[in-house]
Specification:
two-stranded antiparallel ribbon; 4 helices; alpha+beta; binds iron/sulfur cluster; 7 strands; three-stranded mixed sheet
Length: about 170
Amino acid sequence: MERLKEFCERSNLIYLTEKDINAIARRTGKEPAKFVDTLYDYDGCFVKVKDDARKVILDLPVMKSKADTTCVFYENCCTIYSVRPIACRLFPFRVEEETASNGDTLLNIGYNPTCPGIGKGELVDRRKLEKLVSELFLQRTSDINPQLQRMMASGAISANAKVYRTLPGKREKN
Ligand code: SF4
């Protein structure tokens, strides 16, 4: 719970997909554990099962921060620019998910209002933005679904398990 609180209190979480993690590890030669932050110890598996298979936690990885809360790869500029995560390529926009009344997932394009560039410069190409948003969502889904399906097939997850997740977007209202 301490870690969860710490996650919620940070404002600019940079979510990482498996593709991002592999690209950064290849480029920097660093072990993922050096730059990947997760609620539980990072072991490459984004799905954790707790409470006798009744609780499934999608432990989505984010970029580690330094003590001053800046990204571990920030040194006056981005030091991994050519392989920066898809969430960074999207910034200040972000994917905000919503569940429709029929159960479908709707992807909204939100933005971080703290970005000083909002409202300045050239208009963003909407198609490029939509492509990045769907790419991010699809990568994230393909990171999680195979792991979930394997666990369900092996009986590691109970049929009425509740799913919890850490995802960017609108915060839950208390
Ligand atoms: S753009 Fe680079 S320095 Fe900035 S958060 Fe992304 S990876 Fe880190």
